[in-house]
Write a structure and sequence with these properties.
The structure holds 2 protein chains of 2 kinds. Chain A is an alpha/beta fold. Chain A has 7 helices and 20 strands. The two termini of chain A are about 15 Å apart. In chain B, about 45% of the residues lie in helices and about 0% in strands. Classes of the chains: A alpha/beta, B mainly alpha.
Chain lengths: ~325, ~100
């Protein structure tokens, strides 16, 4: 019998979950709102901690979902649940019956203009981590003009009650150091500074990246949060921060400032999430059953979660969750 | 005429104006100088630091913030016992760097 599993989201989590579910003999269907699979990771150039090309991970994932039903440019308009399972009405007018739903809806990047004091969208030379990644990928960004001094600001939209995000976004520290090293590769004569509060190097090889950043790439890490950015007469950026290790405020002129934007819950799924009866946690992400043994489950039977829809996560974390959600769904279908 | 007003100097470290010559010279022979993670082990174990303001962590920062005179003054407290080198988790050869600064 055909056991449809509706997977909402065609990023890393959705693709990997679909691949594994198919291997387990179920019939995954991926609904993706954009015009391509791959999600955020497809926009990335290289991955931390070892500068691994992102496409080397994305390409095999895309390859393995071949043969799986994928609906691009499609969203779920309405979803109802009865004793037989779920009935989803899509934006293309079609209806899909499914035995289980996997929410793999991922994250939205924090909108940097919300932190007005950093001047994104006001000053030309303030860019986001995502835009820098695009520069590494394409070599093109007219704002990046042989900069002599480059600054990175950590925790933009994270650990900040003023924007309503008190959580740590987990991957930005390591990404900042990776991007700082890459900037030194592209512009060897530039001075590169990162402004951090703590450097959270939580994974294997991450601490090695930190050491490399300091020793081999000569990136200068300053402990203190940039609090103010302005532009001088020459169109360069003047930043203020406290060097909290030195115990003194500090002023510096920069040619480029990169904002490490946090992950926020993808809100485009809110209506469907509500219909399914899945609540949000205190960080505004989806609430899973519990963070240990029930990380893929939700309060609603037959509705599962994987990836960054429940919290900021690295790519390996996301892949691991996508694989575990496949087993959870398989067990759920077989024990029904 | 003195009206009793005066200009207070800025307390900001002006990063655009600092002279990093000494720090950069040290870096050439001691690349580990960059790898400090400010854990404070060197300062906590420092024999001289028990009785004076001596702190190798701060000396490194002073050199990077253009306070070379203050750094050299602080170094005079060092007794070269080498305990700091023993405890440094980054394996920085602190005793050698201290000697190199004064050279």
């Amino acid at each position: 019998m055909k056991e449809n599993i509706l997977i909402i989201g065609g990023g890393a989590a959705g693709m990997e979950a679909a691949t594994q579910l198919k291997k387990l003999g179920l019939t995954p269907i991926i609904i993706e709102k954009s015009d391509a699979l791959g999600g955020h990771i497809a926009q990335w150039d290289r991955l931390f901690p070892a500068f691994h090309p992102a496409k080397d991970v994305v390409a095999p994932m895309l390859e393995s979902v071949k043969g799986i039903d994928v609906l691009l440019n499609t969203e779920v308009n309405d979803i109802q649940c009865d004793a037989d399972g779920f009935k989803a009405v899509l934006t293309n007018g079609k209806t899909i019956d499914a035995k289980a739903v996997v929410l793999a809806t991922g994250f939205d990047l924090f909108k940097a203009e919300r932190k007005q004091e950093y001047g994104y969208g006001i000053y030309n030379n303030v860019i986001t981590s995502l835009e820098l990644e695009k520069f590494f990928r394409t070599g093109k960004d007219e704002r990046i003009n042989n900069p002599k001094k480059i600054g990175f600001v950590h925790c933009v939209g994270a650990r900040d009650v003023k924007v309503g995000n008190t959580y740590c976004s987990k991957v930005c520290c390591t990404t900042a150091l990776k991007q700082a090293c890459e900037m030194k590769e592209v512009f060897p004569n530039a001075e590169v500074y990162t402004f951090y509060m703590d450097l959270r190097m939580f994974g294997p090889g991450y601490e090695d990246l930190y050491l490399k950043t300091q020793r081999d790439f000569d990136v200068k890490c300053i402990r203190g949060r940039v609090c103010e950015v302005s532009e001088n007469m020459d169109g360069r950026l003047v930043i203020k921060a406290e060097d909290t290790l030195f115990g003194k405020p500090l002023k510096m002129t920069l040619d480029l400032l990169v904002l490490m934007c946090s992950m926020e819950k993808n809100k485009s799924i809110d209506k469907i999430q509500q219909q399914l009866g899945v609540a949000n946690n205190s960080d505004g992400f989806m609430q899973n059953r519990d963070m240990y043994l029930g990380m893929n489950g939700t309060a609603k039977d037959g509705v599962f979660v994987a990836g960054t829809c429940t919290a900021p996560k690295s790519l390996p974390d996301t892949i691991a969750e996508a694989r575990s959600v496949a087993v959870e769904v398989f067990n759920y279908i077989n024990n029904k | 005429m003195d009206f009793g007003f005066c200009l207070s100097p800025s307390s900001h470290v002006q990063m655009d104006k600092i002279d990093l010559a000494t720090f950069n010279r040290l870096k050439e022979t001691n690349p580990d100088i960059n790898t400090c993670i400010a854990c404070g082990s060197c300062t906590a174990t420092c024999t001289a630091g028990n009785f004076t303001e001596m702190s190798f962590r701060r000396i490194l920062l002073m050199l990077q913030r253009g306070k070379e005179d203050e750094a050299k003054k602080m170094i005079q407290r060092c007794m070269l016992c080498g305990k700091c080198t023993l405890v440094c988790p980054r394996g920085i050869n602190i005793r050698k760097i201290l000697l190199d600064i004064t050279r």
